[in-house]
Write a structure and sequence with these properties.
This protein is mostly helical and 199 residues long. It is built from 10 helices and no strands.
Amino acid sequence: MARAGLTTERVVRAAADLADEIGFENVTVAALARRFGVKDASLYAHVRNLRELRERVALLAAGEMIDRIATAVAGRAGKDALVAFADAYRAYALERPGRYRATHTQPDPALVAERPEYRRTAEVTTEVTYGILRAYGLSEPELTDAVRLLRSTFHGYCALEAIGGFGAARSVETSWGHALDALHVALENWPRAGTGRPG
């Protein structure tokens, strides 16, 4: 029987908060039960197991992140949109480290399919990301290549920054700005498929 006051949404949000505090990999049903002051069994009325709990945290975080990004890029285009996207991405990654880590897990497609808001998250992510890149005149297969470049650049920078991996005296903010300038130039001069040279 579900404990009064507990809902799936409340359980998942608490797990997301816990992930930010102790790390996504350290979130367990037992740790979450201690936070609520209940036995582990009380949570199994809301999530089937640890895997589902973590998947739901991942989907929650992905929705939060893309909503923040979509708000930031609204009404912008070109470099302004790219910078707004990147800054919102980085801010979320640094402010919500456990949630951000969760976004790099692959949830069960069945779980995504059963909740309309999860499908919406995937659709908005595609719409926002590809919308920015189409403004640079890109189409498939270059779009996929460009998405991979952006994701690897943003994630790599944020991951290193989060662990204090930039030891030089140079301002991290300044380097971030120059990295975005370089991405903008790369996108404007993207090599077309099969040529290896700017189009």
